[in-house]
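Please, structure for the following, as tokens.
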Amino acid sequence: MRKESGKTEDAQSNAATSTVLEDDVATALALFKSEAQGIAIIDERGLIVRANPRLARIFGYESAELIGQSIEMLLPERLRGAHVSHRGDYVKSPRTRPMGIGLDLVGRRKDGKEFPVDVSLSPFQSADDRLVMAFVTEVFWDPI
């Protein structure tokens, strides 16, 4: 009977753990989808593997249009080459940090219009890859 009791306790424990993990995943997904900041998850090659709805709205795309594209598509063409180099340096020594300290960062919408942004980076390890989460905030300013 003890073995049966142990099996029941193990099954209950596994079911409880599974429920907690499912809740965690559901919570993380809800946060990702509803976040007020744009979020891009980027692989080491600079390809967008996930984009939340806010990021898509900021840049004028549908989320699906961004998946598989280079993160540089969200930058003015004149900045893309330098960004590839900076991204390569970051991949060698990733750390959580704001991007472009002391610089005025600029994004480029689908329609070609440029606008100021703030970006913070946060690396993490997925089951398969090292990824970077880029948090993008559209900066609203009033030129005087």
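The longest helix spans residues 2-34. The chain has a mean pLDDT of 85.
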